[in-house]
């Protein structure tokens, strides 16, 4: 989800300015409708919806004009694929509280990636996490809520901070157990806050310690979503397009 989509119109589809184009994605359990932005007479832009599973869906380009019925201009298939970011988000979500798995992730720290790669990883994994269907009882600290904050252990927050993942850290902070993870020491006596300070991650340290800290800039933060029952509406400020998602 949240990838940029460009639609190229054929000569016969280039019509008057008062025609509005929409894309309708029909999946097995969910349907999305996105508005589009005209770049020029032959091109449209919009964003892809965050889908609930990896599958091939039908997408229809529809044209609307005041006083006329909606026309289906063209149809095509569109594939939602399971990529590395999705796999990573699923793995991290399932290993919350699993000490063996969390300690295993620490090997990533020994081969630290260039800043540009970390930024790309941060954006993609945080976005994938946003689109995961997390269980209602999911917690950053894992399923065992009987553990006290005094027990040294590794947490998902330690993982995100150790790699300098700003956006993933912000996402985890908003989840149950996110704030509680900040005061937990690992086996080396480090909290996520002290890790950020030790590694010189000033922005990350500010994010963890300042109550008024704002969400880090990202493509995903340009979107604002409102949920209502089986429906949700997302507004993307960058492209000025809307996305309606409904359970079929």
TrEMBL record:
<dbReference type="GO" id="GO:0035023">
    <property type="term" value="P:regulation of Rho protein signal transduction"/>
</dbReference>
<dbReference type="InterPro" id="IPR051632">
    <property type="entry name" value="Rho_GEF"/>
</dbReference>
<dbReference type="InterPro" id="IPR036770">
    <property type="entry name" value="Ankyrin_rpt-contain_sf"/>
</dbReference>
<dbReference type="GO" id="GO:0005078">
    <property type="term" value="F:MAP-kinase scaffold activity"/>
</dbReference>
<dbReference type="GO" id="GO:0016020">
    <property type="term" value="C:membrane"/>
</dbReference>
<protein>
    <submittedName>
        <fullName>AKP13 protein</fullName>
    </submittedName>
</protein>
<dbReference type="GO" id="GO:0015629">
    <property type="term" value="C:actin cytoskeleton"/>
</dbReference>
<dbReference type="GO" id="GO:0043123">
    <property type="term" value="P:positive regulation of canonical NF-kappaB signal transduction"/>
</dbReference>
<dbReference type="GO" id="GO:0071875">
    <property type="term" value="P:adrenergic receptor signaling pathway"/>
</dbReference>
């Amino acid at each position: 989800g949240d990838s940029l989509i460009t639609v190229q119109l054929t000569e016969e589809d280039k019509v008057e300015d008062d025609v509005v184009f929409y894309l309708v994605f029909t999946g097995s359990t969910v349907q999305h409708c996105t508005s589009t932005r005209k770049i020029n007479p032959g091109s449209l832009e919009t964003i892809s919806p965050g889908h609930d599973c990896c599958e091939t869906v039908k997408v229809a380009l529809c044209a609307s004009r005041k006083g006329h019925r909606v026309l289906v201009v063209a149809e095509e298939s569109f594939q939602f694929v399971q990529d590395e970011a999705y796999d990573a988000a699923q793995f991290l979500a399932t290993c919350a509280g699993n000490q063996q798995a969390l300690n295993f992730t620490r090997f990533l720290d020994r081969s630290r990636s260039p800043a540009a790669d970390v930024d790309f990883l941060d954006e993609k994994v945080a976005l994938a996490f946003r689109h995961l269907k997390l269980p209602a009882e999911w917690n950053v600290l894992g399923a065992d809520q009987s553990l006290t904050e005094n027990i040294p252990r590794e947490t998902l927050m330690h993982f995100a901070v150790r790699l300098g993942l700003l956006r993933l850290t912000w996402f985890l902070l908003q989840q149950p157990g996110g704030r509680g993870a900040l005061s937990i020491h690992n086996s080396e006596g480090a909290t996520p806050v002290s890790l950020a300070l030790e590694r010189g991650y000033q922005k990350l340290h500010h994010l963890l310690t300042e109550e008024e800290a704002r969400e880090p800039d990202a493509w995903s933060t340009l979107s604002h979503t409102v949920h209502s029952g089986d429906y949700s509406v997302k507004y993307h400020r960058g492209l000025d397009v809307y996305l309606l998602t409904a359970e079929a």
